[in-house]
Design a protein that fits this description.
Blueprint: E1 13-17, E2 23-27, E3 31-36, E4 43-50, E5 53-60, H1 61-69, E6 85-93, E7 107-115, H2 126-134, E8 142-149, H3 158-176, H4 181-191, H5 193-196
Antiparallel strand pairs: 1-2, 3-4, 4-5, 6-7, 6-8
Helix pairs in contact: 3-4
Length: 214
């Protein structure tokens, strides 16, 4: 079985079922091309590139497509508790060398649309499309623009920072020296009480050493 350097199966591991019944384990990055087979029986020719050599496997198209669609994403998947995504659509006059006709404002309409966590752009709202067609549609100089609104940065409270820092200290001390963990934790809490109380630390800018005149 193909494994990564960490001993776990790679994220892009695929198992191709050849027409002769063989099972071939490959990584998705090894697939060089996929072409329809001349057999016309739902098979595809999968060209693989591995260790400087090319291989061709006649595999089942439906099974290959299902495995590729089920690959584990590299990024964290969205959770139902995540805040909804917000897209801002605007109708703008995006001709840089001309002013909008009849003294109209450069931004005609702005609409924000919420989508479930992890979902992409939902498309321009109907009111944006309706106003765009009223202004002339394609070629009129007005453009429909979209922008993803980043969620506000979460600011941790002092209690949360204190709890997190203390838990990190306990975990590191227990892992590094389990027999002396209590002494290490007590020493660090005594040495840096403000830090483990959750106070915000500000670092002074580094100062260059005084120049010694001859």
């Amino acid at each position: 079985m193909t494994t990564s350097s960490s001993g776990k199966p790679p994220r892009d591991l695929l198992t191709l079922r050849a027409v002769d019944g063989r099972r071939v384990q490959v990584r998705a990055r090894m697939i060089k091309s996929v072409q329809a087979s001349s057999t016309g029986q739902g098979h595809v020719l999968v060209e693989l590139y591995k260790k400087g050599r090319s291989y061709v496997v006649l595999a089942d198209a439906d099974e290959l497509g299902a495995q590729v669609a089920a690959l584990r994403p590299k990024s964290r998947t969205a959770k139902p508790t995540d805040p909804p995504g917000v897209f801002e659509y605007s109708l703008r006059y995006y001709t840089p060398y001309k002013e909008p006709p009849d003294g109209m404002a450069r931004v005609q309409l702005t609409v924000r649309v919420e989508v479930p966590p992890g979902k992409g752009s939902p498309g321009a709202p109907p009111e944006i499309m309706a106003r765009w067609h009223e202004l002339g549609g394609p070629g009129c100089g007005w453009s429909i623009c979209s922008q993803f609104i980043e969620p506000p940065v979460k600011v941790r409270s002092q209690e949360h920072r204190a709890r997190q820092r203390t838990q990190n200290l306990e975990r590191r001390a227990t892992k590094k020296a389990p027999l002396f963990a209590e002494q290490i934790i007590h020493r660090e809490l005594t040495r840096r009480p403000g830090y483990f109380a959750g106070e915000t630390l500000t670092r002074a800018p580094a100062q260059s050493p005084d120049r010694v005149e001859d």
